[in-house]
Design goal:
Length: 185
Amino acid sequence: MALKATIYKAQLQLSDMDRNVYADHNVIIARHPSEADERMMIRLLAFALNVPADDNKGKLDFAKDLWDVDEPALWHKDYTEQILHWIDVGQPDDKRLMKAAGRAEKVSVYSFASSTPVWWKNIETKLTRASNLVVWQIEAAESQALAKLAERSMQLQVTVQDGTVWMSTAVGSVEITPRRLTAGD
């Protein structure tokens, strides 16, 4: 018998001063049995950093990347099913990223392992044609601290200002400063 996803719920209160996005979101996250708290929380961080100000061009949704290799961690599709934004977390290979760059208007990657510099050095030159790709590095210490905030039911306050993110719950608070590794749009 296959293991089933564990459902996590987050009430996300977002104040993104960099993008002028202020909203509350009730988020349901299906956590794959093989997924760690750290990766799940990075997906939640990616949601907060990329959720559009309104749904005029569709919604940003959690996808099934761990169940279906043809899907990212999150994606923003318009109402015609065109992929506007493909968002991966971790260290996807260059072939996956080039394929995503051909399918979506914009591709973002949030890499959070301490091995990110080695991974990036090995694939950076293979991705020069993907002008719509942006890769972000989250320091391992920050992502590990973020993982400690994970609970089955969370109330998260997310504040973004000058490229720095503060995520806090009743359990604690974490400061995250994503570092851009690419020069894409």
